[in-house]
Structures are given as structure tokens and as C-alpha cells.
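2024-03-11 09:14:02 DEBUG pipeline.ingest accepted 1 chain
2024-03-11 09:14:02 DEBUG pipeline.ingest length=402
2024-03-11 09:14:03 DEBUG pipeline.predict start
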Amino acid sequence: MPARLLLQLSWRNIWRHRRRNAILLCAIAVAVAGVMLLNTMMRGMQEDMMNTAIGNLTGHAKILEPSYLDDPGIERGFAVDDGWQDDLPNNVLGWASRIRIPAVVMSERETRGIQLVGVDPAKESISFLGDAEVEGERLSGPDDARILVGALLAEALDTATGRRLVLVTQGADGRTREAGFRIAGVYRAEIAGLERAFLFTGLSALQRLLDTDKVTEISIRIDGEDLDTSTIEGLAGRFENLAVVSWRQLERQAAAMVEVSGVSIYILFVIVMGALVFGLVNTLVTAVMERLRELGMLRAIGMRPRAVVAQVVVESSAIMAIGVAAGLALARAVFAFVADGIDLTAFDDSLASFGMRPTFVPVFDIRDAVLIAVLSLALSVLASFYPARRAVKIKPLEALRR
């Protein structure tokens, strides 16, 4: 049978049962749109958790003294040779060397344990500190001996910009260091926990306090997560006596959540599309049983079995293709309303435990749309073979007697 005639017959059969096929098309469109929108949410969650972990002073890769993670302290720092960054590959967006050590901060009324971080502000565009909103003044450079305090920590300490705080930590010689610092500014971060945990000062100023010229870490941010493995291998060869670890090793909870959400996308698709396939098979079987006399007549006048199979498959594929196209268009239209982000400030504390920001931004990935379209059409073809087999088994004489 010519392909054109086959397409004409299939198209007319679809329109013969408009109400039933319209209901099926609506079901497919809603299911596809739902899966696609949930995928955008899951992709947004993945992106948010990954970017939060990387921006949380971690970077895509970090250079550390091997025993630093077990017992953080300046005694596990290391010296950096001048010009080491000249060997970095072209995909590196930036790097920042820091001192990050535990300390105790005291105000007139409160005492808190915090992470004291010495930074070069010009290098912190790779971390959340570069974009943080600051009330007051930012640190002017690595020699600035003032401090930046998180808003929630400042509230807990009952202090403000311009006041002084006392910091107690351990120096490079193992002795306690205690010094007063004036607050240059109060920063706000999208993750509330960061405001409570980190207190920043100039890198060189902190080195003078600790009596050292070492740093405890170097964070590196690269262009594209897929390239971090080769970058880490190259850095490991450059820093033979140091550990070069990826953000997935440093932020294991966030990395695990990213992996789980990625697998969940495909599980969700299989469940929803599996249910749709059963509905499609049921509809096609019903259509075949209603057309026994018609199919018997076509067989009687010479239509071959493979032409009958092809007709049923084409009808199934056409219904699925129209439904998928409508579903993806619906999903794209709905996505336009939430593309700028969804405000989840009311759940800030709960989201922070998953490493997510209070403003949730869905991510529309064209690869998901292509995957849904291809797999849906493949499933529709597979699902149509059972009713097509029923149609082929129809004997022309028996069908004409009905």
C-alpha cells in the first residue's frame, strides 16, 4: 500500500472517533506537560544544590593539606609558590587562596563558635561572598584587618557595623591568639546557615595574627562541571604533596542529592509514560474491535497483513506525536510564568538543610524535551503492536459476517 494512502486512512480513522481520541490526546498532553514541568523543577533543584555547594567557599576543586579535613587548623597549612597559577588550564574561571580555621568570637553579651576565613576580596568572585549584599563597607583588600559578619551572627551577638568583636583562635605555633576586630560590614547570604557560620577578614591580616605565611586551602572554579575530572588530575600532578579534591567529595550530601534527583527524573518518566501506554493500548484495542468489519473488508479486497499493522502503528504514533507536541507546548507556556523563580522564603530553614536557596529557579532543559518526545514515540510504537497483532488475526470471512 502506498505510504500516502496509508497516512490518509490513518488520519481519517483518528477523526472518526473525535471524542475518544480527544480525551486520549488531552491525557497525553497533560501527562507530558506534568512530566516536563516536574523535570524543570528537578533540574532546578539539581542546579541550585550544585551551585550552592560550589559557591559555599568550595569551588569545583580544592587544594588542601591531606590531613586538614580530619583536623582543620593553621598548622595544617601549606605555602604557595609564586606563579603556580600559570599552569592552570584555560577552563579555569578563577581561584582563591584562603585561611579557614575554627575560632571563637565574643561580643559584650554573647560568645559563638565560628569559621574564621582570611580572604583576598578581589578573588572571591568565585564564591557567594562576591555577590553577597553588604550593609556597611566591604573589605578593601587582603591587608584589611577589619571583619565582615553575617547578618544572623550579628543578630545573635547583638552587635552592628562599627563595633568591635574579640576573636580567639590558635596560631601557627600552637599558642592561643586573641585580638579585637572592628566590624566593617554585615553581609547577607541566600543560605541562612552561611551567615551564622562564616566570619571574614583580610588574608594577609590574618596571616600576621597567626604568625604564618601559609594558607589552608585554594579553591578553583572551572567552566563546566564535566571538565573537573581532567582539571583535578592536572592539579594533582602539580601539587604532589597536597590533596586535590572535587566538590562532590567535600559536599557529599549535596552531591548525593544531585544524583538522587537525576535518577528520580527518569523514574518519574517511566511511571507516568507507562500508565499512558496502557491507556493507549486500551484505546487502540477498542478501536480495532469496533472496526472488525472494516478491517475484514480491507483484507478481503487485498490489503496485506503488514499494511494492517502499519496502519495501526501509524495511528498510534500520530496520536502520541500530537499529544506530546501539545504537552511540550503547554509545559513551555506554564514555565514562562515561573522562569524568573519561585519565592520559597517561608521555607528558608528547611531548604537550607538541602543546600537550596529560598528563591527556587526551575531549569528548562531542551534535552529533556527531546528525550520525552523520542521515548514517548518509541513507547507508542511498541504499544501499538499488540492491537496490530489482534487486527492481523482477523479472518476476512468472519469479519464480514458480523
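2024-03-11 09:14:41 DEBUG pipeline.report DSSP finds 14 helices and twelve strands in the chain.
2024-03-11 09:14:41 DEBUG pipeline.predict end
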